[in-house]
Specification:
Blueprint: H1 2-9, E1 16-21, E2 24-30, E3 37-39, E4 49-58, H2 82-88, E5 94-104, E6 109-112, E7 120-121, E8 128-131, E9 142-147, E10 154-166, E11 173-180, E12 186-190, E13 200-209, E14 212-222, H3 226-233, E15 243-244, E16 247-248
Parallel strand pairs: 2-12
Antiparallel strand pairs: 1-2, 3-14, 4-9, 4-11, 5-6, 5-10, 7-8, 8-9, 10-13, 11-12, 13-14, 15-16
Organism: Streptomyces boetiae
Protein name: Tellurium resistance
Length: 250
C-alpha cells in the first residue's frame, strides 16, 4: 500500500508508480482532474474480478483535539496505530461506507450497500458483492467485488462513499478508493478537496466504452445521502429510511 500513502503526501497531477514485491512488478495509476479516466479491462478480455477498496486514516493534525491531556503527557500513545489513536480520542467517530449504484443493460437499477443489508450478489444480478463494514479504515478496509465475467451486463456503475454515522467530516480524513483490476493494476482515486459538512461523495463512474470498461474520476460531494447522489446522476430510484446493525437513519 506504499502508493496509497504516497498519494496523501503528494497531490499533484496523475502519476504512475512502480513497486517490486517478490520479484514481481506492480503499478498504480492515480486519477486526477487532468487525467480523469483509465481502462479497467482490455478490449475483448472482460473476465475475472474487479475489486474496489475503500481505505482511510485520520489526519495526524487532528489528534488530541478532543483530549485535555497533551500527547507529551501520554508518550505511549505514539505507538498506537493512527486509526486507533484517533478513534480513542474521539476524532475517528466517522463511519465511512463504500457503496455502488448500478444500472444493468436490461434496465434494472439498484444499490449495493451495507445500509439495509443490500450486500448484492457476485454470481447473480447485479454481479456485485459488498464485503466488510470497516469502522476504522484499517488495512482490511471495505471491498466491493465486481464480476467481470458478466461485464457485458453493466450499463453504468457509480462507486460512492457516504458517512452513515458520526461527524460529516470528509475534510478530517484522508480517504482513497482503489480499483484493482483482474490484471493487478491499481487505479487510485483520492477523495481530495472535500466540502465541509458533506455527507456523501460520488467517486467513480464505470461504463463500457469501445468494448471495455472504463473508470472516470468524479469526486463530487453532496450534503445529503444516497437520494442526493441519485438525483445528481439521474438514477431515478425511490429512497426511504434505512437501517444498519439495528440502527435507523433519519
Amino acid at each position: 500500500m506504499s502508493s496509497l500513502w504516497s498519494y496523501w503526501r503528494n497531490s499533484g497531477g496523475a502519476r504512475q508508480k512502480f513497486d517490486t514485491v517478490g520479484g514481481m512488478s506492480t503499478y498504480a495509476v492515480e486519477l486526477t482532474r487532468r487525467n480523469p479516466t483509465a481502462p479497467l479491462t482490455a478490449e475483448g478480455a472482460e473476465t475475472g474480478t474487479l475489486r474496489v477498496e475503500l481505505s482511510w486514516r485520520m489526519r495526524t493534525s487532528d489528534f488530541g483535539r478532543s483530549s485535555d491531556s497533551p500527547l507529551w503527557r501520554r508518550p505511549l500513545e505514539i505507538f498506537k496505530p493512527a486509526e486507533i489513536q484517533g478513534h480513542s480520542q474521539g476524532v475517528a467517530t466517522i463511519d465511512f461506507d463504500l457503496a455502488c449504484l448500478y444500472e444493468l443493460q436490461d434496465g434494472s437499477r439498484g444499490v449495493v450497500q451495507a445500509l439495509g443489508g443490500l450486500l448484492g450478489d457476485f454470481t447473480d444480478p447485479p454481479y456485485i458483492k459488498l464485503s466488510g463494514d470497516d469502522r476504522f479504515g484499517t488495512g482490511s478496509g471495505e471491498n466491493l467485488y465486481i464480476n467481470l465475467d458478466h461485464a457485458d451486463q453493466f450499463k453504468r456503475l457509480l462507486v460512492f462513499v457516504y458517512i452513515y454515522d458520526g461527524v460529516p467530516a470528509f475534510d478530517r480524513a484522508d480517504a482513497v478508493v482503489t480499483l484493482v483490476s483482474a490484471a493487478g493494476q491499481n487505479i487510485e482515486i483520492g477523495l481530495t478537496d472535500p466540502a465541509s459538512g458533506a455527507r456523501s461523495c460520488a467517486v467513480a463512474l464505470i461504463e463500457p466504452q469501445k468494448g471495455r470498461l472504463v473508470a472516470r474520476r468524479e469526486v463530487k460531494y453532496v450534503y445529503g445521502f444516497q437520494s442526493e447522489i441519485d438525483r445528481l446522476y439521474g438514477w431515478g430510484m425511490s429512497w426511504g429510511l434505512g437501517k444498519k446493525e439495528g440502527r435507523a437513519r433519519a
